[in-house]
Write a structure and sequence with these properties.
By secondary structure, the chain is α+β, with helices and mostly antiparallel strands. The protein is built from 13 helices and eleven strands. Helix 3 packs antiparallel against helix 4 and helix 3 runs parallel beside helix 5 (108-129).
């Protein structure tokens, strides 16, 4: 930032001196470079989806279909000498197994086995290729394909829309277990229904970018937050209500002179009623319709009066609740 300011001031100074003009007051709107730093987004990882690890315990029966035997042979014969050939054969045989399943030639069980073997080949190729000095592009892309999917409690379109819209790269860092070396490669998925709701471009080494982020293995029941930095410019203004995910909870924090933190203000995020109102739905009217429907169900003996009351209360609590997933024991209510 200082170098940037020096360059701007220097060139203006040089021109003014050359033309014998008075030095002006410089007012600059530098966008992201100045305003991005004040805001960060903290998201919790909810769950993870991983491809199975390669295992040499896969067995194929003698009476298995020929396509299954062929793809298993590829797994067994893959080595440093034939990685590209093995990859091409694996892709072809996986598609062949799928076509044979659609034609009723092989069973669902054998199709599943062929896919399990296929992912085993991918894992094996990835592991063997890590020792190569030169890695072909086809093999390099396997790292992204096989990466874990870490599902995070946020909406890309609401909180970091520039990641999706203009491929802006935001710094993303785990903020727990900092004394442990991350051991997994992952992409980040949000909780919208949209396949574009993901982050798969991260700051890498040597001023480049990486398609995956190094993270820790997710432990059962563990709280594992990730921090997305430099979200202070434009993200809140550009945020979109895709899937009706609203503004997140916000904390305003300042730094005291002695280095301690001062929590100045806590602003609760939008609840379901708030976002429904944006799209012209009345929460009171919706709750009234549900109550009317439940009264009819009680009269017809479909549910008991207690069951109807419980459902009605649950529905109304949902209308008052946070638009993102919360711990039931700490549910957000206004």
């Amino acid at each position: 930032m200082q170098e940037y300011a020096n360059d701007v001031v220097y060139h203006l100074l040089e021109i003014c001196n050359k033309e014998n003009l008075p030095h002006p007051n410089i007012i600059s709107e530098s966008g992201r470079a100045m305003t991005a730093h004040h805001s960060i987004l903290v998201v919790n990882v909810l769950d993870v989806t991983s491809f199975p690890e390669w295992s040499n315990t896969i067995e194929v029966k003698d009476d298995a279909p020929e396509v299954v035997k062929e793809i298993f042979y590829v797994l067994d014969s893959t080595s440093n000498k034939n990685l590209i050939e093995s990859w091409h054969d694996a892709v072809h045989l996986k598609e062949e197994a799928q076509n044979q399943f659609l034609l009723g030639i092989i069973s669902l069980e054998n199709r599943a086995l062929s896919e399990r073997i296929f992912w085993g080949i991918c894992r094996k190729i990835e592991q063997l290729s890590s020792r190569l000095k030169f890695m072909p592009d086809e093999i390099r892309s396997l790292k992204t394909t096989l990466a874990d999917k870490y599902f995070c409690n946020f909406s890309v379109f609401q909180s970091v829309p520039d990641s999706w819209a203009i491929d802006q790269v935001f710094p993303v860092v785990p903020i727990y277990r900092l004394n442990e070396e991350p051991s997994r490669d992952a992409t980040l998925e949000d909780i919208t229904c949209d396949s574009d709701g993901r982050i798969d471009n991260f700051i890498g080494s040597h001023r480049g970018t990486e398609r995956t982020l190094r993270v820790h293995n997710l432990e059962p029941g563990e709280t594992y937050p990730l921090c997305i930095f430099l979200t202070g410019a434009y993200q809140e203004i550009l945020g979109d209500l895709h899937n009706l995910f609203g503004d997140t909870n916000t904390v305003h924090v300042s730094l005291n002179e002695d280095g301690t933190l001062n929590y100045e203000q806590i602003i609760e995020g939008e609840d379901v009623t708030d976002v429904l109102d944006y799209v012209q739905f009345s929460a009171d009217e919706l709750a009234g319709r549900i109550d009317g429907f439940l009264i009819g169900c009680v009269q017809r003996g479909i549910v008991t009066k207690k069951e109807a009351n419980d459902f009605s209360n649950l529905y109304k609590e949902g209308l008052e609740g946070y638009t993102y997933l919360v711990d039931p024991d700490r549910a957000h209510k206004k």
